[in-house]
Amino acid sequence: MRMMVQGAVAVYESTIENSAKDSRSTEHARRNQTMPTTDKTISQIFEEFLSDQKARLSPSTYSKYDTIIDLFKSYMESYWPGHDQDEYDRLTEAGGKFCDSFGPEEITGGYSEFLGYFMPHKVMCGKETMKAAGTVTKKLAKWLADKGYAEDTSDAQERAKEATKDLPAAQDVLDLLEHFVDMNAPDKYEDEIEDHFWINKIEPGKLWLEPLTICDGVIGPVPVPKEVTQICREMWEIGGVVVKTKRGWRLLEVWKVSP
């Protein structure tokens, strides 16, 4: 019996995006209470930041900075953090773009969604790029404060520091689980659940998973390599398929792991 609701992934995407919008709107309101002002746009700030980094970095390291800033800019132009649909419609209908319309006070308000959602869910890349996302955004946040473009970016720097460790670690877990599934996926099974799952509980070599959209309750234990349970944390997310066999729940597919 296949236990899957049509559009479950779409429901999940909508739910997590709406949650991110709520949190970034709160950040945006708090951030704008006491912010320095400048006539420079986000695009100009990014150009200045990259120019400063280019003078001190090797070409290979600078290339990573350029890539992450380009991804961050793409995120901003797609999600308009801190701004509603009406404002998006009004400005874009007039030919406006996010990074050409707003200033540096808007930048760190997008960190949580960029690092927590956009990078792990929308960007296909290796662990080095994932790590660079945290490194570059941490440097950017500190640079904004040092330049006087932001009052206090300590929270943003801390969020980026966490991402420096968590994003590549999640990629390691994904690689381990993909290999494990390739070697151990069951041929015969009964119930099948395709969804995104929170990690509810961790024991050595075992995970308990909570489906986000399909059914209530916790599934487990689900056998995984012990190395996986040494790296991952509760409330990390796994996207994939879990099936019920005569020996219990097993992973059939894994396509995403995010912190």
Structure in words:
There is one protein chain. This protein is of the alpha+beta class and 259 residues long. It folds into two domains: 16-165, no CATH class; 175-258, OB fold (Dihydrolipoamide Acetyltransferase, E2P), CATH 2.40.50. Helices cover 54% and strands 17% of the residues. The protein is built from nine helices and six strands. The chain has helices spanning 8-31, 42-54, 59-79, 85-93, 98-101, 111-122, 127-146, 154-184, 226-231; strands at residues 2-3, 192-203, 206-211, 219-223, 237-245, 248-258. Strands 1, 2, 3, 4, 5 and 6 form a six-stranded mixed beta sheet that branches. Strand 5 (237-245) and strand 6 (248-258) form a beta hairpin. Helix 2 runs antiparallel to helix 3 (59-79) and helix 6 (111-122) runs parallel beside helix 8 (154-184). It is elongated, with a radius of gyration of 21 Å. It starts with a strand and ends with a strand. The model is unreliable at 1-12 and 23-35 (pLDDT under 50).
